[in-house]
Fold these 4 entries.
Entry 1:
Amino acid sequence: SNGVADVLTRRTNGLLEPLTNVNGRIATYSVMSNAIYDIPAARMFGPVQPYVGVGVGYGWLNLSGVHGNGYGTFDLPENNTYTASDSVNFGTAGAFAYQGLIGASLPLSLHGLKLGVEYRFFGTTRADVPVTRVALGNNTVNGVIPSSLAHNDFNARDNVFMLSLRYDFNPR
């Protein structure tokens, strides 16, 4: 979970423009399957056990608390359009997720307990996140406030450093 301070959206003119008054948090939830390889390096590093790994799975990008203000063009009936300042709110979508990791663990005095340090890179392919735009103010057109629902592609990339305590139930 991270705070969001900046969002760029592609406008009808094709340019990426920032939203104003951006606020909210993005959270990514995932289910991963990892393969981890313990590097056989007992002579080189003593009791320290280095390892590398990769993972694949599925991640959900939750941007439902993220919002900001922009300027949009709304399609109206009979091929008319309406352009105004708008409020932009984002939703949730899922995508294929992947990760790579590298770390090392050190056995502690309690049999099976290990102290670990690890770096992980986590990413997702593009998720098709719903985006709702609603015209600001009390401007109504044909009795309704102009709004639109679209989908924007988002992907997550995250770098994580972890310090951990791990217990092996079947230690060697």
Entry 2:
Amino acid sequence: ITVLRGAWGSQPFDFHGEHYRIAGAATVKPPDPPPEIFFGGASPAAERVAARHADVYLTWGETPGQVAERIDRMRTLADEAQRQLRFGIRLHVISRDTSEEAWAVTDRMLDAMSDDVIALAQSQFLSAESVGQRRMAALHGGSRENLVVSPNLWAGFGLVRSGAGTALVGSHREVADRIAEYHRLGIDHFILSGQPHLEEAYWFGEGVFPLLRGDGLI
């Protein structure tokens, strides 16, 4: 990241570190303004890098309590580095006109996940070196039971999908309220997705966006 930022400068950049030797790094047209660096990682080493170099620290969709604890720790690390961080979160979304409709979607998704596929995925996740992946797996323990790990937060994606494994699920109002809750904790950036992508984007755009706008969040 140091080299990247240096190459974005107006003068050729030299760097001599443990792993990299750079002489005269430059870009043909330096970006103005330079892009912000979004950085994620749950290990202590990754947190230290983020505190020293990132503009926005990203976390996967853990419970509000876990996210609050992470933000507090990252703010302390950033203070020690005499820097300030902003925060983002990565989540899936299943938003419908009613809560019942939204949770029915999770039931259909869960029915389509075979026990063999879940077992194979979980064996791979549990052996992963990624601290973040292990934290995602710990939310559900590989079990179909108790996948609602916090109000409107469903961990079912994480049974078969690596990386971001949780979804905000509920009525448009409930999803908007959960987004507002994370925002109050300090989250400014929300990286959201859904399956199928286009259809879920319409559900969210038509149902949740107006509520967020009315709440003064966008």
Entry 3:
Amino acid sequence: MPWSSLFQPVERLSAEQGLEDWYGRLLASLGGTPAPFELALVGGLRAATPGLAFLAGYQAALRVLWPAAPWTAGALCVTENRSTRPADMSTRIYGLYVSGRKDFVTAAECADWLLVAAREEAADESPRLALGVVRQGAPGVRIEALPALPLMPDIGHARLHLDQAQGERLAGDGWDDYVKPFRTLEDLHVLTAVTAWLSGVGRECAWPDPLLLRLQALLAGCAEVARQAPNAATTHLLLAGLFAEQQALAGELDAALAAGPAHWAGLWQRDQGLLRIAEAARSKRLEKARRIVAGC
């Protein structure tokens, strides 16, 4: 891991030409095939906004989830009618074909490939998920752009429509091997990228050394947790500790940002809520992890 990136001048990448162009330029600056944690860390450092840092962390998490993924941008498509429960899904996979609808696809505008959670059980069986891969622009694949949200408005989202779209079924169980671990992978790599973004802003604005050192320590903790199995109870305990450390810095971060350029403070004021996405789900995973570790 090239930790020296943290201490070098930051060359920020903006996204005037779109997210696909931004991601391509980020990969080019990294030599094309970075390790996922490096992608999250350096992507966060070079992001012009917290939303772009989120995108780097999201793409890094996808690469851990599917190591054989193409080096273009992708997206995981799970949510239907505000739910991610398999029993609430109607999207189906039949052999090589996928049909259905996904209601919230992150960064769909730049996603070349789409991982789609789809049911595959027979009529008399309990819901069972598979994960199919379809390509944007292929027959039967349609993206419906949705209005920008107040949080991270520079990262679009969309609805995905599939009508007998031909794809590939990934090996393994769609829920246990993909959907379930992805939330942990995304939480970790997005936390990494956003912390790196804050660290880069802090160095540029000459924040107090103790604050910068604590941000560096948080990133070091993220690197260690990235080495752990995402489904392990101990990983959830460690990840909860990292988020607690980040939250403990909130007051110092707000003060440091308020004392510097209004541009950075405004971006953080707008987008800092991205670290609270799925906070309730993290809390449930933490309580379950505690019970498992305690042997209850």
Entry 4:
Amino acid sequence: AANGDTVESTIEGTYSIPWPWPSPFIAYITGTRTVTGGTGRFQGATGSMTLEGVDADNGVTLNVEGMISSVGSAKK
């Protein structure tokens, strides 16, 4: 966040390159990201996301879907 608060997480997944090596280059990305806490307003945050994408010669496209909940989100 702009004030320096951070979200902490772990990522597990795969980065797969087809064989024989393709030309143009392409690789496939899949995984999950698990929110394990944070600092400031994100302290105690939880959540998870799925990651799916492609790394191609012209860059990386990554789709992320999921949710992050924090203790601060319940305050009114």
